[in-house]
Request: fold
Amino acid sequence: MSGAGAVTVRVPAKVNVQLAVGGARPDGFHDLANVFLAVSLYDEVTATPADALTVTCEGPDADKVPLDRTNLAARAAELLAARHGIAPDVHLHIAKDIPVAGGMAGGSADGAGALLACDALWGLDTPRAELLEICAELGSDVPFSLVGGAALGVGRGERLTELPVGGTFHWVFAVADGGLSTPAVYGEFDRLNEGVEVPEPVASPALLDALRTGDTAALAGALANGLQAAALSLRPSLAATLAAGTAAGALAALVSGSGPTTAFLVKDAESAESVAAALIASGTCRTARVATSPAAGATVVG
Ligand code: C5P
Reply:
């Protein structure tokens, strides 16, 4: 909870229900057709006045979160303060529930959360379009953390079009031991595709339809992650996790973003509980979490 003179923002994790990856661009990034869906696992970022910029973190994986200026929350405060010509004197506390380096945009969530929290704490009222620009500067997935819901991201994933979602989807996320570095997974993608003509990434009409109509079975048939082969190449043990969730009754299984979290689409809340229990019992993951989507984007909660 935040006290007087503090602002707390809640920000969701994401799963990529389609991640179509193009060839490497001259700037090293990859053009994407990236369909983001926000899920109900959240970090909370609390901003309080301080004499200098400091970051603290609590949660089971807190020891894996950098507390220096490489933390996207700290960078968000710096960029916002610089834009308004003020000092970024703020204490940012992250209550972390999103897996760290897991392919669920946990770091991006903290960046978007800090941005919104500082904007409110400092009374800046920065226009939404400017906040989104700062998000894009922070990282490819950060604009989506601000927006939430569902969206198609093109370019390097930062240019968003919000998408309608016609129902609730139920998920299980298997959390792996250790993280995977996003640049390393993209590097492996390039290595696996050396000498191959990689097609232009395009959003799947069947997938967009499944989201719009809230049709879980259709979404299960349309899920696709172009980084999955690269993530599995770097972490072959994820194949056993995917197989365990499928054997337990998941309608579809895929690596979440660049991994190593794996995502399982299930038919309802009851199935989510049984698939999560089976995944934990299988010994192929560190833990399993249930969640629903869509979830709201970054929101001031206190
Ligand atoms: O934008 P962000 O800082 O999250 O990207 C992290 C890394 O992921 C980039 O440095 C790049 O190696 C890779 N990436 C990419 N193409 C994208 C997004 C990210 O190659 N569209």
